[in-house]
Amino acid sequence: MPPARPKKINPPVPDTPTPAAPEPALPFRRNNLVDLIHEELRRRITDRVLVADQRLVIDQLAAEFGTSLIPVREAMARLHAERLLVHEANKGYRVAPGPGTDEMRNLFEARVVIEVGALRHGFARIDQSTIDELHLVNRLIAKGRYGVQFKDFKAFIDLNARFHGIIVGLTANPFIIESYERLAYHQRISQTLTGQGPSNIDKIVADHDAVVAALRKRDREGAMAALSHHIEYGLEDALERAQETAAQIADKRRAK
Question: 101-255: which CATH topology?
Fold first, then answer.
């Protein structure tokens, strides 16, 4: 009698999958919803997913993110303070255009006044730990690998803001520190980096090193001169980037 053939076992038929609900852009179930919503909207503005003059509707964003209106309002108020959004009475919020040449000149002039002045008046508070922290931050900037989208150059923006914030913080003067923060320089400059990235890292690191080297020598005038030179060079670069950004946006509009 021939051996019985093994019984054929058909593989189980999988259930028809239920279409997955679209995932939110960020895991908005975490604790600090305001920070998460703020960062996501900042990314969209910087990467021009949200374009200049586009109106933002709080109710729509709250529905998209699966939150109440309150954290969205707070996030948008923060973006307004950072001058990434414009608010009009009875109309709400819209995306602020990127910084033009006049704004850039004014921003950098204000930076010279505040940062170099802060270094002068806070110089007596500099100690070895401050110098070590500035050096460490600059080494982190030098080691970074940065791309052309916000998520790829955000680390540079944050580290650069930290370097300059340490200097301004030497004053221990809340009015000066608040004045510097209200410039929103680092948020605005981000809008000129999309599609280009921070390509002048070596120069930025070298300028920072010059400031740190002067501080190590306790050379106040030398540190102030190095910082002023750094900011003035930054203006030249920022003006070029602002013009390139304006050209990119104009080309994109014509393509439509």
Answer: Four Helix Bundle (Hemerythrin (Met), subunit A) (1.20.120)
